[in-house]
């Protein structure tokens, strides 16, 4: 994605609890003379800020750190919900003169656990199988957490839908009672009017 040199860009990731998130990014700066993005952005860093929802519906900062023009950040979610990941360059130029565009290549992996291939190759076959089994078990735990989180979201959505349907039913009943009351009042008023005018 593209951002201005002094602009902040945020993305939202819906992450289950106790999940490792790893992000890799690379920044390229626009070159006015070449009319293209440079391969890197020397001297330019990125502030990466990660906030998560807390129990009292406020945001809690999980990560706030300055990285270089290319880097890797990681954090673990403690609560399930929408996590906000924000990027802003550390450019010191004034907003008026900082008209340069930046291109950010971003790769975010949620719940991924990496195997250290060099450690696996250094050990014998039994240990290799053991390490790979542990890795698979970790991935199974992650899938289970993801399913629990989706189940929790589905229950919350179902509850909201049922409450909305209930409210719609009560609103329809109230509307019907109001219409019946207005109809009875109009009939009574017309009857009284006709009696007063001696038309009945």
UniProtKB/TrEMBL annotation:
Q: Where is the GOLD domain?
A: 8-110
Report which superkingdom the organism of origin falls in: Eukaryota
Keywords, sorted A to Z: Endoplasmic reticulum, Membrane, Signal, Transmembrane, Transmembrane helix
State where it is primarily located: endoplasmic reticulum
**GO cellular component labels:** endoplasmic reticulum membrane
Q: Which Pfam families match?
A: EMP24_GP25L
Q: Does the keyword Zinc-finger apply?
A: no
- Write down the membrane topology: Single-pass type I membrane protein
What InterPro entries does the annotation carry?
A: Emp24-like (IPR015720), GOLD_dom (IPR009038)
Write out the annotated subcellular location: Endoplasmic reticulum membrane; Membrane
Query: TM spans, by residue?
Result: 168-187
Q: Which family does it belong to?
A: Belongs to the EMP24/GP25L family.
Would you tell me the protein name for this molecule?
TMD11 protein
Q: What is this organism's lineage?
A: Eukaryota, Metazoa, Chordata, Craniata, Vertebrata
